[in-house]
Write a structure and sequence with these properties.
The structure holds two protein chains of two kinds. By secondary structure, chain A is mainly alpha-helical. Chain A has helices at about 5-35, 40-65, 75-90, 95-125, 130-164. The termini of chain A are far apart. By secondary structure, chain B is mainly α. Helix content of chain B is about 85%, strand content about 0%. Chain B has helices at about 10-40, 45-70, 80-95, 100-130, 135-165. In chain B, helix 3 packs antiparallel against helix 4 and helix 4 (about 100-130) packs antiparallel against helix 5 (about 135-165). The longest helix of chain B has about 35 residues, at about 135-165. Classes of the chains: A mainly alpha, B mainly alpha. At the A-B interface, helix 1, helix 3, helix 4 and helix 5 of A face helix 1, helix 3, helix 4 and helix 5 of B.
């Protein structure tokens, strides 16, 4: 038993998210490359830039806390990403692969939404207002990215129907 | 070199593939929630995990029905993502105790809920695109139940986070 107060839990969960974000910055370029739709490629490229910003925000938070962000691997994200990669490779390039990637990316987004939601409320409880605010900004961007992907998925489907 | 096998060639096979993954996810969650319910101390949280476990069994029946009529069988495909999410929860059980464990397990459970929300959202959209109206309705119902379970956990965590802050 090593985590015995809310601040330690906050730090643990932030390290988990730092590892998750780092993994995502490595995965997104692959999604960009594999996208057939220009709109989807743009969405992934945009989110890659945003994700790099999320890493910087976490760096800033760790600085405030006087802690190192390193030393933890987020196994949850590893599992979500490897499942997504598998589905991407199994799906035929084109519309179906795009749909498969969108659904994989939305699983990633949702993992982050849950993760950031938790740490944001721990930070609030601990009176760490600046940290809570930074986490809220990232949380909002993750939610927006998820919505954007739903929109792209719907458009892809409409195009596919017209093409058929 | 890894051989690339593109087994999924259209939206319908993608739909079936993802339904199989969700079936495996739900089966693992039914087991995982039992362990989590046993590990927590707060009664309301324990109750929430137990009742969601019952709900998850209903979700399994819904997916089995969908698979039976679209694929002709209800075989699952191992969902590695949920295995790793449950693994993270188990790790937290080892690392924390008491109220803090409760708080940590809520966070773990919410990651699982969110995984399911994303997965069911995608699956429901696929059902709509494929014109499978009945499937889309059933999946939408599950999606709402996952959302409600997530909201309930947020409510409990507001109370428990406060208690955790008061820990020495």
């Amino acid at each position: 038993m090593s985590v015995d107060n809310l601040e330690k839990l906050l730090i643990e969960e932030l390290k988990d998210l730092y590892s998750a974000e780092t993994q995502i910055t490595k995965a997104l370029p692959k999604l960009v490359k594999a996208s057939s739709s220009t709109e989807l490629r743009n969405a992934f490229e945009h989110h890659l830039k945003e994700t790099e910003g999320h890493v910087r925000r976490l760096d800033q938070i760790f600085e405030i806390l006087g802690q190192s962000p390193k030393g933890k691997t987020c196994d949850g994200m590893k599992g979500v990403l490897s499942e997504g990669a598998e589905s991407m490779h199994e799906a035929q390039k084109g519309n179906v692969r795009d749909e498969a990637m969108i659904s994989a990316a939305q699983r990633v987004e949702h993992y982050e939404m849950a993760g950031y939601g938790s740490v944001r409320s721990y930070a609030e409880r601990l009176g760490q207002t600046t940290i809570a605010q930074l986490l809220q900004e990232t949380l909002d961007e993750e939610k927006a990215a998820d919505k954007k992907l739903t929109e792209v998925a719907r458009k892809l489907n409409t195009h596919a129907r017209h093409a058929a | 070199m890894k051989l690339l096998i593109e087994k999924i060639q259209n939206l319908r096979t993608l739909y079936i593939d993802q339904a199989r993954l969700l079936l495996s996810a739900e089966q693992q969650i039914v087991d995982g929630l039992e362990k989590m319910a046993d590990a927590v101390t707060d009664e309301q949280l324990q109750q929430a995990f137990r009742s969601h476990r019952q709900e998850s069994k209903v979700h399994i029946t819904r997916i089995e029905r969908i698979l039976n009529h679209t694929a002709g069988d209800a075989d699952e495909k191992k969902c590695k993502a949920v295995s790793s999410l449950i693994g993270e929860g188990n790790e937290l059980i080892q690392e924390c105790d008491g109220t803090l464990r409760d708080v940590a397990l809520i966070a773990a459970a919410q990651r699982i809920e969110h995984y399911e929300m994303a997965a069911y959202g995608a699956l429901r959209n696929f059902a709509q695109m494929l014109g499978l109206k009945g499937d889309a309705e059933a999946l939408d119902q599950t999606l709402h139940e996952e959302g409600d379970a997530d909201d309930l956990l947020t409510g409990i965590s507001d109370r428990l986070n406060h208690a955790a802050m008061l820990l020495p």
